[in-house]
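For reproducibility, we list the full input for the flavin-adenine dinucleotide complex.
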Amino acid sequence: MPAATVIGSGVIGLSSALILQRAGYRVQILTRELPLQTTSVAAGAAWSGSELEGQSRSWAAVTLQHFFKLAAEPASGVTLQRMREVYAHSVADPWYRDLLPFFERISAQDLQPGLVDGYVMDVPMVAPPLYLAYLRDQFLAGGGTLEQRDVSSLAALQAEASLLINCSGVGARELARDPRVYPMRGQTMLIDAPNITLGYMNHERVDHIFPRSDGVLIGGIKRDDDWNRQLDADDSADIIARTSKIEPGIAQARALRQFVGLRPGRDQVRLEAEQLSESCRVIHNYGHGSVGYTLSWGCAEDVLALAKTTEE
Ligand SMILES: Cc1cc2nc3c(=O)[nH]c(=O)nc-3n(C[C@H](O)[C@H](O)[C@H](O)COP(=O)(O)OP(=O)(O)OC[C@H]3O[C@@H](n4cnc5c(N)ncnc54)[C@H](O)[C@@H]3O)c2cc1C
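The corresponding predicted structure, in tokenized form, follows.
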């Protein structure tokens, strides 16, 4: 049985580990933070294809099919959610329009002042605290092992593993010595607002209202090169102020939980194999920025394809 060691247990590490395990690999995960402590738990997390180009579109399309299947399993924390996506300028129909079960353009009179265009669509919505636990449990039930360990360098693992999968998110800046990786700080708040059933995304303003299976997630913040992982009260107030203008009920809603995460920024995802030594290869899978959930299964499938070439 071939073996693989995955570094990291965010959405990218867990998806990669599961795909390898299902293909017959004996997989262990080594991770500094456990799944529910990662950046991934702070995410929205909507399947969001609008800002994608090139290869990322294929990864997102593959992920979409996985999410459609997961949405049929209530325990996964994935649901199909009706969302508005709005713009202050005109936009063409997106590349993924025909992949969704429901898509319609919003007419001009239904848009708030200052907005010019937008659509309503059904997209997969992930509740990360439920979903990450679900992936972790599937992985453990499949015989995988998960060890909390800080990996000081990839070279430090050469003696104990022949195939490494580097899913270290923003940690790849150090672990892969990659200066192209930088943090994009995010902050979100989960609120109790069962009356809000229609979601909202304005990417330009980072205004997000995501009804999920565990509450309504409001956001957000996107601040490049900010490593602060503490909650910022001004950011919380700003999130409530901005989203209340869209859904006035938000100002009165009870806050359930707040999150901070560092999106792994990079000019492009790094998904490639590197020979570390004669007996050890690493497949890098990091740098997913604001769309790690959207790309997760497509990237994991490419990790498996690369792992198989590595075997030969
Ligand atoms: C506020 C916010 C909203 C978002 N909304 C969305 C959305 O709506 N849709 C979407 O698709 N994406 C969204 N994202 C982006 C998405 O969350 C990220 O792209 C994704 O979580 C990155 O996952 P990852 O597994 O690469 O990184 P992480 O979740 O950061 O996991 C990295 C893992 O590597 C481990 N690690 C790092 N260094 C080491 C080391 N040296 N040794 C051992 N372990 C190490 C960490 O401990 C951790 O377990 C959002 C992100 C944020 C912050």
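The chain has a mean pLDDT of 96. The longest strand covers residues 254-265. Both points were considered when choosing residues for closer inspection.
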